[in-house]
Structure formats: structure tokens, C-alpha cells
Amino acid sequence: MTQYDSAPIKPDVAHLDIPVKQPLYAEALDPNLIAFSIEADRWPDWAGYEVGEPNAYARQLFDNLQKRTGHPPAVRVGGDPI
Predict the structure, then answer these.
(1) DSSP letters for 8-36
(2) pLDDT-based confidence at residue 57 (cuts at 50, 70, 90)
(3) pTM, two decimal places
(4) In terms of CB atoms within 10 Å, which of 11, 16, 25, 30 comes out highest?
């Protein structure tokens, strides 16, 4: 074996416990840190394709962020990124 050879790598196993409910020690996220910039041509994907039928995934995401921060996230659609 030369100095450049290496022993086989054995993957380590990590265990992660995720609580079902928010722990009492959890703090609210800063609402100023969360914002979305959505390209105009992708807006229907986020908003939904039919009036009155919003994208359920995006709606749940925004609702969850509002619950954690106390404020809805800022959303900017299209425009100049500069």
C-alpha cells in the first residue's frame, strides 16, 4: 500500500430524532430572513393554475412559515434581480 492508497470507507450511521410537535424551547424564526423571489413564468406553479384552487403545497409552506415567524413571508414575482 502506498501513501496515496486509502482504506475502504465505512459509512457512519447517524440517528436523528424529529419531534412531532414543536418543542417548548423552540424560538420563532425571524420574519425578515424569509422571502421568496419567483420568476414570472413559474408563478402559476406556485399560485395554482385555476382561480380559487391554490397550489396546496405552496399554501401549506407559506402557512407553516407564518406560524413559525408570526408574519407571512415576502413574495416578489418577476422583475429585475438587481
Answers:
(1) PPPPP-------SS--TT--PPPGGG-EE
(2) very high
(3) 0.56
(4) 30
